[in-house]
Specification:
Layout: H1 18-30, H2 33-55, H3 87-123, H4 125-139, H5 143-153, H6 158-184, H7 188-195, H8 200-236, H9 248-254, H10 264-291
Length: 297
């Protein structure tokens, strides 16, 4: 040994180049049937979210009293509702609303929770105690019940529903990020970064967070399905999107009075919710198996 001070990183496991890691992940996902099924489902709904409004044959919000409660077929492939609005058009427009709503909720929750968990884990002591006790307060309530309570205080709307769900989901990411930071901050590569004079913020942003991000991303993928269901649930009970917004949960609620006779009003948006939630769950399970060291992969 030459006795030279450690430079940028020796002492910790050198990560594979980003391109090589991406290729490894892609090869593993391609060999997993459920992962590819999930990716195809997500890609399909992402396509609908972008292009669905342009493919819709009718307006999703304008009633047509001449075609009330039409069964599937003919000019209305998925039928019409009790105001004559075309179900297919509303499902296509709803893809953008529901897909982007779930993405926004998870992105906000992940960003807020990861920031709080990182500060708690890195600083420790007083800040760790305060932030984690606050996190425990939110975790003490079921997500749906807490989201309902917050949405009930606010004016019922899609925006307020998204805010309510985001407030209930960040603690999961805070706990996960804190655990990752605690396991990484005493590792050799962090000590090496300190030895060459890097500041705490730079170490966290450039060295610790990138290594802690995989579990957070997997959790986000798994949460997408649950968030989608909660958002639809809030709209179903009246705390989310309001008529005539073509949101899938709202559409299911609008058709519940006709379920035994005009089944198509609720059935098709419910199928859309189910498929998209399954797609995210399939992909999340595959990613968890890929990155979980206990899986042996």
């Amino acid at each position: 040994m030459s006795g030279r001070p450690a430079t940028a990183a020796p002492g910790h496991e050198q990560p594979a180049p980003a391109s090589a890691e991406r290729r490894r992940v892609w090869r593993a996902l391609r060999g997993n049937a459920l992962a590819m099924t999930g990716l195809l489902i997500i890609a399909f709904f992402a396509f609908l979210a972008v292009f669905g409004p342009y493919l819709a044959p009718y307006s999703p919000t304008e009633p047509d009293l001449d075609h009330i409660l039409q069964p599937p077929g003919g000019a209305h492939l998925l039928g019409t509702d009790d105001t004559g609005m075309d179900i297919l058009s509303r499902v296509l427009f709803g893809a953008r609303i529901d897909f982007l709503s779930a993405l926004l909720i998870v992105a906000v929750s992940m960003a807020l929770g990861t920031a709080i968990g990182t500060v708690a884990g890195w600083l420790g002591g007083f800040w760790d105690d305060v932030l984690m006790r606050m996190t425990d307060m939110f975790l003490a309530f079921p997500s749906l019940i807490l989201a309902m309570a917050i949405a009930a205080v606010l004016k019922p709307s899609l925006t307020n529903a998204l805010l309510a769900i985001s407030v209930t989901y960040w603690p999961v990411y805070a706990r996960l990020a804190r655990g990752q930071i605690l396991s990484l901050k005493e590792r050799e590569f962090v000590e090496a970064a300190r030895a060459v004079g890097l500041g705490g913020a730079r170490i966290v942003l450039r060295h610790v967070l990138p290594n802690a991000f995989a579990p957070v991303l997997i959790q986000a993928t798994l949460d997408m399905g649950a968030v989608l269901l909660i958002a639809a649930g809030l709209s179903f009970i009246g705390f989310g999107a309001q008529p005539p917004t073509p949101e899938w949960g709202r559409m299911v609620s609008d058709g519940r009075s006709y379920l035994q006779t005009q089944w198509w009003i609720s059935t098709f948006p419910a199928i859309a919710i189910l498929l998209l939630a399954l797609g995210f769950n399939f992909l999340g399970d595959a990613l968890r198996d890929l990155f979980d060291p206990r899986s042996g992969r």
